[in-house]
Design brief:
The complex is a heterodimer of chains A (106) and B (224). Chain A has 106 residues and is mainly alpha-helical. Chain A has four helices and three strands. The longest helix of chain A has 20 residues. Chain B is elongated. Helices cover 80% and strands 0% of the residues of chain B. In chain B, helix 1 runs antiparallel to helix 2, helix 2 runs antiparallel to helix 3 and helix 7 packs antiparallel against helix 8. Chain B is built from nine helices and no strands. With 224 residues, chain B is mainly α. The chains are: A mainly alpha (106), B mainly alpha (224). At the A-B interface, helix 2 and helix 3 of A face helix 2 and helix 3 of B.
């Protein structure tokens, strides 16, 4: 999977707390990505088995249950590896540049 | 919040539009997922005052639509492989060809209608008017005999027949010197006005057929 700036941001948000359950809107806010970019990205990650999703239990007050996402074990490994390689590439010098993630997401 | 239900309904409509572009097997779950996020965004006080939250919610819904249009492959689980570029080029070629065909048809139709209007303005040509009326009469008969004409085609052909008939009457009258020319000019103008009304009905049928595809396949055949 090609490392892009949105993917880097999403990996960083997930790796902040790999055990945390993340909702789509929370991921959007943390990664600073619009829904039209985030959801296709999550769908791709899910298709590759790097992210898993589940539905929360239905609310008593009639609110619709939300879907949350989490990195799988393989996803955590891949994310760490990809981010490490990216850091190494950046340290080596100018090449194909990927726009860095915002400070709050790191 | 005042107007919350209205805003949610608008957001829901956008999400529903976005989901229509998804494969049927994942459509319900994506619809549920995105619909569940809308009230959360609308009640998220961290993002600012109520109007801003409404804008954010609508932007969320609109952007899901953008995502399903531009990144449809992601939701289908498809990965671009070999030969995809060639396939894309083939589709592009077919699309351009179709677009070119449509443009040619549109230009032809405009020229055809322009010709009728010109005949109306400068005085009709007998051969043109009679050919117009008779050829369209033949086409209408063919539609009824084959039972394949849809309402759009029928109204269009009827509009051409009426215009052709009005022009033919005027052309015959002027060539044989009957009656007052003004009377027959008025008759031809009336014919063209009725023709325009029929064209409007054809356009209406077309828009209805687009809203309800079943109407597009409606034939003149009786129900069995």
């Amino acid at each position: 999977m090609r490392m892009t700036a949105p993917l880097e941001r999403v990996f960083r948000v997930f790796l902040d707390d790999p055990a945390a359950l993340r909702y789509g809107y929370d991921l959007m806010k943390a990664a600073g990505l619009p829904s039209g970019t985030l959801y296709p990205l999550l769908a791709r990650l899910q298709a590759r088995g790097l992210v898993t999703s589940a539905w929360e239990t239905p609310h008593q007050d009639g609110e619709r249950p939300r879907r949350y996402y989490q990195l799988t074990g393989e996803g955590i490994e891949v994310a760490r590896l990809e981010l490490a390689q990216l850091s190494a590439r950046r340290a080596r010098g100018p090449g194909r540049r990927v726009r860095p993630a915002p400070a709050d997401a790191t | 919040m005042r107007g919350e239900r209205c805003a949610l309904r608008a957001g829901g409509a956008l999400v529903s539009l976005a989901c229509r572009r998804l494969p049927a097997r994942i459509r319900p779950e994506r619809y549920q997922e995105w619909l569940a996020e809308l009230p959360v965004i609308l009640r998220d006080r961290d993002t600012g005052p109520a109007p801003l939250r409404v804008v954010r919610m609508l932007a969320f819904a609109a952007d899901t639509l953008r995502g399903t249009v531009l990144a449809a492959d992601a939701y289908r689980g498809a990965h671009r492989g070999r030969g995809t570029a060639a396939k894309d080029l083939r589709w592009l070629g077919t699309g351009l060809l179709l677009l070119g065909g449509l443009l040619v048809c549109a230009v032809f139709l405009l020229a055809y209608e322009g010709c009728i209007i010109r005949q109306l303005a400068i005085g009709p040509n007998l051969t043109f008017s009679v050919t117009l009326a008779l050829s369209n009469l033949g086409l209408l008969a063919a539609c009824y005999i084959s039972r394949r004409g849809n309402p759009v085609l029928r109204w269009y052909v009827i509009s051409q027949i009426v215009a052709g008939a009005g022009l033919s009457i005027r052309a015959i009258a002027s060539s044989s010197g009957w009656g007052h020319p003004l009377l027959f000019a008025i008759i031809s103008y009336c014919g063209c006005a009725i023709s325009a009304a029929c064209l409007a009905l054809a356009v209406r049928s077309l828009s209805r057929a687009q809203q309800n595809p079943d109407l597009a396949n409606e034939t003149t055949a009786p129900e069995r």
